[in-house]
Every structure is written in C-alpha cells, then in structure tokens.
C-alpha cells in the first residue's frame, strides 16, 4: 500500500458527543440512569437473580422515564452492556413566559433560549407562574438527555 492512496470514510453519525454510553448491567445501581425502550430513565429498583443453569445472572431494572414519569422495566444479563444516557442539568434565569406556554431563559453567555415549554408537573408549573407573577427573580434547572430538555426544578433568588 503506497502513501499516495487516499482513504475516504463515510460518517453516518452526527458530529458531537454520543447521547449514551455503554455500562455493564451489573454495575448500574439505584438512582443511576439507564435507557429502557429508547427512553432515558432513572433507576428506582434493581434486583439481581442468581446464575441459572445457562450461566448468566440477570438484573431486573425498574425505572422511571425522567421526562414523562412513566414506569418502565427491563431484564438484562448482568454481564451485558446497557446504554446509559448522558444527563446534564443547567440553570437558567427566567426572563419571560409567553401566552403559548414557552419560556424565555437567559443563558450564561447572555443569549436567550426560547425553545422550552413550561413543565407539565402541576406543582412546579404553579410555582413558576406564581413566582413570575409576583415579580420574583427565578432560576430554573433544565435537565437534558438524549436530545430532550425539560424544566425540572425552580429556585427563587429574591425580588427583582
């Protein structure tokens, strides 16, 4: 093979980091994260069966979808790899709430982020609307995983 030959590699993946990473099923613990049925979930219960006559201990995961709150279950041999989502939490200052349910957030570099909806959780939703109506400075925590984002928490940093 000579140096003059050129190699072309076709990339089917998008640029940037992967949405998940592999982790051995036996090492995933309660309060960790796992992907079940292509959804990012928080593990609420893990039980491991003993090795059977075919040689694999199995892990039974009960997990809750971090965006929809749905309960999902999966059984995986403990020596196999599972997908684990990259979960990030970012804090933004709340600037405005539009009539159609979208929020305007201030990012760290001074830009605005206008593509997030108000949360579906009723208590969090009312806390945000009430605090904003009272003119308080509010900071929302946005959880992002696997290309999805949702407001998951709220902090009051005082009156404006």
UniProtKB/TrEMBL annotation:
Q: Which organism is it from?
A: Oryza brachyantha
Q: Which GO terms describe its biological process?
A: positive regulation of translational elongation; positive regulation of translational termination
Please give the SUPFAM superfamilies that the UniProt record associates with this protein. Answer: Nucleic acid-binding proteins, Translation proteins SH3-like domain
In the UniProt record, does the keyword Protein biosynthesis occur? yes
Region (Disordered) spans which residues? 1-22
Modifications the protein undergoes after translation, according to the UniProt entry: eIF-5A seems to be the only eukaryotic protein to have a hypusine residue which is a post-translational modification of a lysine by the addition of a butylamino group.
Instruction: Give the matching PROSITE patterns.
Output: IF5A_HYPUSINE (PS00302)
Against Pfam families, the record matches this protein to:
eIF-5a (PF01287), IF5A-like_N (PF21485)
Q: Does the keyword Secreted apply?
A: no
Q: Where is the composition biased (Basic and acidic residues)?
A: 1-13
Q: Sorted alphabetically, which keywords does the UniProt record give? A: Hypusine, Initiation factor, Protein biosynthesis
Membership in a protein family: Belongs to the eIF-5A family.
Q: Which GO terms describe its molecular function?
A: ribosome binding; RNA binding; translation elongation factor activity; translation initiation factor activity
Q: Which gene encodes it?
A: LOC102704299
Span of domain Translation initiation factor 5A C-terminal: 86-155
General function of this protein: Translation factor that promotes translation elongation and termination, particularly upon ribosome stalling at specific amino acid sequence contexts. Binds between the exit (E) and peptidyl (P) site of the ribosome and promotes rescue of stalled ribosome: specifically required for efficient translation of polyproline-containing peptides as well as other motifs that stall the ribosome. Acts as ribosome quality control (RQC) cofactor by joining the RQC complex to facilitate peptidyl transfer during CAT tailing step.
Name it. Answer: Eukaryotic translation initiation factor 5A
What Gene3D superfamilies does UniProt report for this protein, alphabetically? 2.30.30.30, Nucleic acid-binding proteins (2.40.50.140)
Family annotation (InterPro entries): IF5A-like, IF5A-like_N, IF5A_C, NA-bd_OB-fold, Rib_uL2_dom2, Trans_elong_IF5A_hypusine_site, Translation_prot_SH3-like_sf
């Amino acid at each position: 093979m000579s140096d003059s030959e050129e190699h072309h590699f076709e990339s089917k993946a998008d640029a940037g980091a992967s949405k998940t990473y592999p982790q051995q099923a036996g090492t995933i613990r309660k309060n960790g994260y796992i992907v079940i049925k292509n959804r990012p979930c928080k593990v609420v219960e893990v039980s491991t069966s003993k090795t059977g006559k075919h040689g694999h201990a199995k892990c039974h995961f009960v997990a809750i979808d971090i965006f929809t709150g749905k309960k999902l279950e999966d059984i995986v041999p403990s020596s196999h790899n599972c997908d684990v989502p990259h979960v990030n939490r970012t804090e933004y200052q709340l600037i405005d709430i539009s009539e159609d349910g979208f929020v305007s957030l201030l990012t760290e570099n001074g830009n605005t982020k206008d593509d997030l909806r108000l949360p579906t959780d009723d208590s969090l939703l009312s806390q945000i609307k009430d605090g904003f109506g009272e003119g308080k400075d509010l900071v929302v925590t946005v959880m992002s995983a696997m290309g999805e984002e949702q407001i998951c928490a709220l902090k009051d940093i005082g009156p404006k």
